[in-house]
Amino acid sequence: MAGRISSGLPMHVMADLAPTIPRARRGLTAPAGLPQVAPAAVFILLLFNVPLLLMLSWSIDPGDNPFKYYAALAQGSVYMKVLGNTIYIALLTTFACCMLGYPLAYWMWSLRARSQILVLALVVLTFWISILVRTYSWIVILGNDGIVNRSLRSLGVTETSVAFLYNQFGVIVGTTNVLLPFLVLPLFAAMLKLDRRLLQAAESMGASQARIFFRIFLPLTFPALAAGSILVFILTLGFFITPAILGGGRVPMIANMLDLLINRMPRWENAAAISTVLLVLTLLFYAAYQWVEKKSRI
Amino acid sequence: MKSAINSGFKALTVSVLLMSVFGLAARAEVKELRMIEAGGPSGESVEKGYIEPFTAKTGIKVTRESPAGLGKLRAMVEAKNLTADVVELSSGELEQAKALDLVEKLDWDAIKPDPIFGEAKLDDGLGWQYYSTILAWRADAKPISTWEELWDVEKFPGKRALPDYPTYILPMALIADGVKPADLYPLDLDRAFAKLDKIKDHVAVWWQAGAQPPQLLKDNEVQYAVSWSGRVVDAENIDFTYNQGQLDLTYFAVPKGIAADRKAAVMQLMHEITVAKNQAVAAGVVAYTGPSEGLDALLPKDKLDTYPTVAKNKNVQFLMDPKWWYDHADEVEQRWQEFKLGL
User: Fold this and answer.
1) What distance in Å separates the CA atoms of residue A140 and residue A142, rounded to the nearest whole number?
2) B2, A60: Cβ pair inside 8 Å?
3) Nearest Cα residue in chain B from A142
4) Strands B224-228 and B125-138
5) Which residue of B has its CA nearest to A56?
6) A150 contacts chain B (CB < 8 A)
7) A-chain residues within 8 Å CB-CB of B164?
8) CB contact, 8 Å: A162 with chain B?
9) Nearest residue of A to residue B340 by CA position?
């Protein structure tokens, strides 16, 4: 993940530059470099995977009804509502990121190389600022006495302050702000890979700019948009700080509920069951992401 | 099957732990204690008031970690890998910790406490800090003095910030509805939630961190807030009242399974906590008070009104009933979440 972000280019873009191994040879022999990787793999297995599985095992009751915590999950309207609410917010965030991210990436693509680097730097810069700081700065901007509300009042547009924060809208502003680069960077990379001669050919055949965009540019970059969307969706599912600060405690998401079950009332078995469901969901979406991304490389 | 897997995992975990240097190091005499506490100004008051004199006397260092919480205690006791020797728990959490068998009995003979209030001297917890949950408002808002007035948005217009903790707001809702503080328990949950439904549209924020209410008042995000007393009594441009506040006591407890020598050191630290002189130092850092009966005389006269336990304030407040909250924890939490989802 980090490697993908720091260069701003997806792995497969980098891989395109490396000579490819013939397909027939792969899969027959053990992957090269296994002995070198083994210590790191064991390290990860012991210090990450084992504790994770240990934790998830709490969700299974040793008694005669091993799945009782899952049953409680299915019956508890609260859990289902929060899960539904989390998915809903993730969908809205994904939509907002697409609406903002695609035009931004398209605009970046149309710039000259030097300007491209500058804008790219601005996008990547947000990764170096703490998520906490970025979240709080929205209060300065959108709060009751924030810049936006003060301007609206002084211009006479509104009498009282508009409630931008402490509701679903506030949370989605926060999540979109944090996740936009995750969509823009892969999308921009995909646009760079696109063969410009295709567009020139279409132009020479007399196609209008709109037609070129919708018949060639969009279809060719759509898989990258889909992959980036799934990524944004997955990441939103785990957001904790943003709903806590910008939701004003009125927009419950799964991570906040887990915090409650783990830290405030010791009901770890329920928390483990929810975590397992969340992990499985995430893995399913991640599989979809991998599949879409593979498609996008063809 | 599950148990076989579990014991396999346990063996693995134990062997991983044994590999750690600390597990193999021979136990020397206690040089350092580890404490988990609430953090913020409250944590600084522990440092100045109790840890400094303790270290001066014994040479034992105390390392603080925050935030506190029942989750951390349960994690280390169940993993049989204690990462702290003394932990802070709220009165309700202490009840839960007792039921889950997570805390040691305290050795009061070893603590040799100075005279302290009875509710602070429990078998498995030392009540060390009184704090209140009170009404606070921006100095430019219309002053209020009762929960009934907080609910009255006609006469006292403005946004509210209320705690995202049923323990700190359900009793207030009942008092606002006309219940006398003496008749609160057992709580009438239906009535309390019905009353909360009446105000929920005027609540901008349900806060979780004690630092939020004063910040929200300062930023004019809300005009009225329910806050922990120590966070607002010394804040600029914020007014407050102890009238009808909820007085509560927070405890220090010792995790189950602690080594005897470490426990003995904790008992020495706990003695320092019962000394009125030390409590006065702590109260100077944050306006919460310790459990000594003779503390009032040592507090600065000009700030006496800001402390939760001085007679004038203590008499207009009510105490919570941790036992009731423990018995009804699940039901309350379920209903609380349902209420919040309906916002």
Assistant:
1) 6
2) yes
3) B221
4) antiparallel
5) B6
6) no
7) 249
8) no
9) A250
Q: Which residues of B touch A57 (CB under 8 A)?
A: 2, 5-6, 9
Chain A residue with minimum CA distance to B331: A265
- Contact at CB, B206 and A60, closer than 8 angstroms: no
DSSP class per residue in B297-326: GGS-GGGGGG-TTSHHHHTT-EE--HHHHH
pLDDT tens-place string over residues A213-230: 999 999 989 989 999 999
Mutate to test the interface with B, among A44, A48, A80, A144 (most CBs of B within 10 A): A144
Q: Which of A53-57, A76-80, A96-100, A241-245 has the lowest mean pLDDT?
A: A76-80
CB contact (8 A) between residue B340 and residue A257: no
pLDDT tens-place string over residues A182-195 = 999 999 999 999 88
Q: What is B80-111 written as a DSSP string?
A: T----SEEEEEHHHHHHHHHTT-BPPP-HHHH
Taking CB atoms and an 8 Å cutoff, what residues of chain A touch B237?
none
Q: Which residues of B14-35 are buried (b: 16+ CB within 10 A; e: fewer)?
A: eeeeeeeeeeeeeeeebeebbb
Amino acid letter for position B302: D
* Average pLDDT of every residue of chain A: 85
Beta carbons of A252 and B340 less than 8 Å apart: yes
Q: What pLDDT is recorded for position A136?
A: 87
Residue in A136, A147, A124 with CA at minimum distance from that of residue A242: A136
Per-residue pLDDT, B5: 53
Tell me the chain B residues in contact with residue A66 when contact means C-beta distances shorter than 8 Å.
2
Residues B318/B244, Cβ–Cβ less than 8 Å: yes
Instruction: Give me the amino acid identity at A12.
Output: H
- Of A88-92, A112-116, B19-23, B303-307, the poorest mean pLDDT is in B19-23
User: Quick check: A14 pLDDT over 70?
Assistant: no
pLDDT of B140 strictly over 80: yes
For residue A275, CA distances in Å to A268, A281, B27 come to 10, 10, 38
In the predicted model, what is the mean pLDDT of residues B102-124?
95
* DSSP state letters, B170-218: HHHHHHHTT--GGG-PSP-HHHHHHHHHHHGGGEEEEE-STTHHHHHHH
Using CA atoms, how far apart are residues B220 and A149, in angstroms rounded to an integer?
12
pLDDT bracket for residue A9 (50, 70, 90) = very low
What pLDDT score does A275 carry?
Answer: 93
Whether chain B has a CB inside 8 Å of the CB on A248: the answer is yes
B34 Cβ partners below 8 Å, 6+ apart? Answer: B62, B63, B65, B83, B84, B85, B86
Distance separating alpha carbons of residues B115 and A158, to the nearest angstrom = 60
Phi-psi region of B272 (alpha: psi -120 to 50; beta: other; left: phi over 0): alpha
Phi–psi pair at A41, nearest 5 degrees: -65, -45
State the first-to-last Cα distance of chain A, in angstroms, to the nearest integer. 22
